[in-house]
Amino acid sequence: MGTLPSYAEDIDGGGSPSVSMLSEVAAARKITVVGGSIPERSSGQLFNTCCVIGPDGQIKAKHRKLHLFGIDIPGDITFRESDTFTAGQELTVVDTDMGRIGIGICHDIRFPELAMLYRSRGAHLICYPSAFNMSTGKLLWDLMQKSRAVDNQLFAATCSPARDTNSHSEYMIWGHSSLIGPFGEVLAAAGHEEATVIGEIDLSLIEAVRYNM
Amino acid sequence: MGTLPSYAEDIDGGGSPSVSMLSEVAAARKITVVGGSIPERSSGQLFNTCCVIGPDGQIKAKHRKLHLFGIDIPGDITFRESDTFTAGQELTVVDTDMGRIGIGICHDIRFPELAMLYRSRGAHLICYPSAFNMSTGKLLWDLMQKSRAVDNQLFAATCSPARDTNSHSEYMIWGHSSLIGPFGEVLAAAGHEEATVIGEIDLSLIEAVRYNM
C-alpha cells in the first residue's frame, strides 16, 4: 500500500489516464465499460474508485469503495486499507443498455446488505471489480458472489486482475473473473491468466426465478 | 400437503406425541434437542413448527416457520405451502448450554435478513430443520447454508429427513444434514441415509474470525 498514493488519479479534475483510456475504448467500441478500481485523489483524500463509462465515452457513474478491507492475524498478516483510503458513502446504481447495474468494489461483496439494497433499487446485475487474496479470495469469488446472485435473484459479476500484475504477488490469487446467474449458475469464468470471457445476460431469467419461486 | 392437517399436533395444549418423544429423549440424555418441524394446530390455524427442548425435558422455544415455500413452474410443478399453513411472526432465539441458537425452518434459510437479525441478537448457531426438494435443495443446504454462516460469522446447521420417509418421495432430496463453521467449512455432514453425525462447535472460532477480519 505504501506506493499507492503516488498512483492516485484526479478523476473529477480530468487528470486520470486510466479513465481516459477506458473512455477511448468505450467510445471507439460504443460499449459500456465498468472499469477496475484505481486510487482516486479528491480534496486531499484517497478513495478506491471504479468508473463506469458509457458508449459516448463519458463517465456515467463513479463508485467509491464502501467497505475498506482490514485483516489482522497476529504473527501472520496485518493490513488495514483504511490506513490509506477513505471509505465511500454512496451506493452506485447506473442504467445502461443491458440493464441497471449496481457497483461494489472487492470487499463490498462481503456485505449482503449492499446487494440487498441494489436489488431493492432495481439492479439486474451487480459488478464487483476485485482483487482476491489468499485468505478470503475463494470464499469471495465463489461462495459470496453466488449467494449475492441467488439471494437477490439477479446477476453478479467479479472482475479481478490476471497474473503478472506487479504488486502483492505472494499474497494474491490472480484472475477468477466470472459472471453468475440468478440460479447460482456460472455463465462465464476466467482462469488465472489474462483472458476475454463472454457471458450472456438474459434478463428474462430474473423474471422467471422471481415468478417461479 | 393434503393429509398434513390430519397429522397436526396441539403443542400448547400438551397433545403432541412428537414433543413428548423429544422431551423424553432430552431429559433422559440431559441434552438440548432442536426438533424437526411438525404441523402445529393452534386456534384453528396450522403452523410449520419446530420445538427446542431443554435438558430438563421442557420446551425452551417454539419456532413457527416465517417464510412459507411456494413454487410455480407452469407445466412442471405448482405448490403453495400457504394453502395449508399460516406463517409465523416471531424470531426465535434460545440460550442453551452450547451457546445462543437462532431457529429457522427450511425455506427460512433462503432469507439473508433473518440470519442477519439472528447475528445481531447474538446467535452463535442458526439451526434450520429442513426438507430439501429437487429444484432448490442443493442451493439451500450448500450455498445458502454456507453463506449464512460466512456472512454472519457464526455456525449454521441444517437437519433434513433421511431416505425412506414416506411422502413426496419423487420430489425430495433426502438427507444432507450438515454443520457449517464461520469460515464456510463443513464440520459434519450426513449422506442420504439415516445417520448420527457429530460436529464440534468451537465458539472461539467466531471470535477469531470477527477479530481477524
TrEMBL record, chains A, B:
Superkingdom in the source lineage: Eukaryota
Name of this protein: Uncharacterized protein
